Sequence to fold (675 residues):
Amino acid sequence: MPEHTDPFAVLYQMGRYINSSLDLGEVLELVMTSLINVTRAERGFIMLWDTAHSELQVPVVRNLDRATIDSPAFEVSRNIVQAVLDKGTPLLVNDALNDPSLQQFRSVVALRLRSILCAPLRVKDRTIGVVYLDNRLRSALFGQADLELVVAFADQAAIAIDNARLYQGVQARLQEITDLLAYQASVLRSVGNGVIAVDSAGRITTFNAAAETILAVSAADVLGADFREALGPGISQLIHGYLAGAQAPEAPTRAAHAIVCDVPQRGRIYLSGHVSPLRTPEGRTTGLVIAIEDETEKRQLEQARRAEEEKRLVLGRFFAPAVLEEILRNPEAAARLAGVRKELTVLFADIRGYTTLSEPMAPENLVAMLNGYLELASRAVHACAGAVDKYVGDAVMALFNAPTDQPAHAVYAVWAALALQGSSGRWRKTTGHQVEFGVGVNTGEAIAGYIGASTQPSYTAIGDAVNVAARLQASARPGEVLVGETTSAQVGPVFQLEWLGPTEVKGRSAPVVVYRVLGPRIPPSSDQTGPDWSTSALCPICGAAIANSKRGCPRCRGFVQREPAHLVLADGARFPLVKETVVVGRHSRNDLVLPDNSVSRHHARLLRLPHGWLVMDLKSTNGTTVNGDAVHRVYLLQDGDTIAFGDVQVAFRSIPQPTDAGVRPLSAELLSTLG
Fold:
């Protein structure tokens, strides 16, 4: 220390200097700078004990680098530091090169150390580190006064360092708390459920963004307010029950409470609430946390789903599945249910001789018979994408081209009529009664939509075209299908018709030109070549001209819905029904070749409908049967039917079947016949 320097003044100035900051790094730098200036040391460093890692750390050095301190050459200084740290007493070395106790350290010679001064940093009888100073040029640089000054300064510095460390710890803790609060606030903002906290006095202490959205109230308006005044009666009643002890806070927090609230901006809302107690570490309850989940949308979706199911159930009694799906999917189609004028084809059919047939029957048997007939009639109509309008006793009314647009609606109506007539054999085998139907089909403009009282509306059509169809059905003999003039013009390319001339019908002043449907047109044998559409200029389904043989019919092909139907042959092979029409026969140019002498060259044809398949005999020698019933014109197939082409039997399947040992895939030879 310089002569004539007042140590107390120096110590006072140094104390003021190092206590001017609470930043640990800055305090350490100030301590090191003060010591170097006062003692005229060449080098120095401060080491602090790190309790977390149980080791000394070197936070500040002067005229040294940390690599030097860690090197073997600095071993003497490290040993001196460790000795001062362990004993808690300062050490002064005037001439390390000539000190016998330090001669064992070769680093003394290597570093040419002269003067060394090392003092502990102590706080409340606890050593928190050491201060080390040395000089390689002068011996006896540090005297006893320097040692006393450094020790006194080290005590002040230790307090300053400890305060800075405490301050640093407090700041770190405050930052942790700040970060935690920010994180909690972020969680509360981002969570989808509303979170409300109230203290034991009933004041709202937390109200997150989701709660603001659900209850349509600002957090600023409710924080600090009594929950009875700020929240609706539904939530308030739940909170009051817990705070009053009616429901124990120890009750399972997973128990959900249904809450109904009326919110001015949203109307009636439906919530699910979960309540949990807020407790101190000692277990004392200080409030409640209420988590609310908005189930209003879920409730509305459930109500909409039930309404959709009820609507589907009602409409499903009248419309084919595809028509029903179109109504539910397409708003324009649904709008047409309210009533629209358009061209329709109307089908009427009833049982001939019903009165005589029903007279000896018990009411239960009569109802069973009628239900069976109506089931067959509905199946024929739906297979052709028609809509069943109503059942009137033993009669059925069906509409085509309503409520959705249907290409070739007149053609499909006649196919449905023939399919119904052909189903009489199926019904006869089921009931044991010989029954035939009279069918009338007419095309013309009518109004189609819901008609009737608002409490019980009925989808139907009204107009002259409907009346004419009913009169044609009344005029039809058993097994006959009669059509009007407009219908005949649209179906002529597909069906053979017999002109019956003008006919007087009840309710009309002018006669109606009537045609009898004899059956589908059957091309000559030379044209029975299924694999190539180009062999026919007309579509076999709707009669439209085919311009592009590769794309099939441009008029009805897009309307037909594909289904995984196939035939299972006697040897188990599957023949997929992938075309609109499939010709079966012995000739190699057929779609399905059956090399059997009982099968005619061109034996039968299978025709795809929008939702089913028909089979028709092509005037074969040995005929075609379905489940033993002869096919006279057409026959509507069902899954599992057995079709016999002469003596060759195949099974018709219209749903996917698993491949097993009994049913093998189609052979390459048979598959080649598909083209």
Notes: Residues 144-190 form the longest helix (47 residues). Confidence is low (pLDDT under 50) at residues 525-536, 557-562, 657-675. The chain is about 35% helix and 30% strand.
